[in-house]
Amino acid sequence: MYGYKCEYCDGIVREKVVAQEAFKHKDGFVILENVPIGVCDKCGNRYYHASLLRRVEEIATKRKLPERIAAVPVAAFQ
């Protein structure tokens, strides 16, 4: 799925399983856990497979239920 050249540098995009990755969707935020993503081994740019983005959309649009819902703290900068 990965192993191609990064579009921003000379690095190679390699698969990495990350503990949590947050995604912004027009219907809100979705956090996936233990998710395989592509990460450039040189600049660190992240790449997402289409199947992963479809999963985010399914959860954001409530076609699939999340395992749990987490509260996110919000505060003004000053």
Describe the structure.
With 78 residues, this protein is mainly beta. Helices cover 14% and strands 36% of the residues. The chain contains 1 helix and 3 strands. It has one helix at 50-60, and strands at 13-25, 28-40, 46-47. The longest helix has 11 residues, at 50-60. The chain starts with 12 loop residues before the first strand and ends in an 18-residue tail after the last helix.
Shape annotation? globular
Q: Estimate what percentage of residues fall within beta strands.
A: 35-45%
Q: Percent helix among the residues?
A: 10-25%
Order of helices and strands: EEEH
Class derived from helix and strand content: mainly beta
Q: What is the helix tally?
A: 1
The Cα radius of gyration reads 15 Å
Spatial separation of the terminal alpha carbons: 44 Å
Overall pLDDT level: 95
The biggest beta sheet reads: 3 strands, antiparallel
The strand count comes to 3
Uncertain stretches of 5 or more adjacent residues: none
Task: Give me the side-by-side strand order of the main sheet.
Answer: 1-2-3
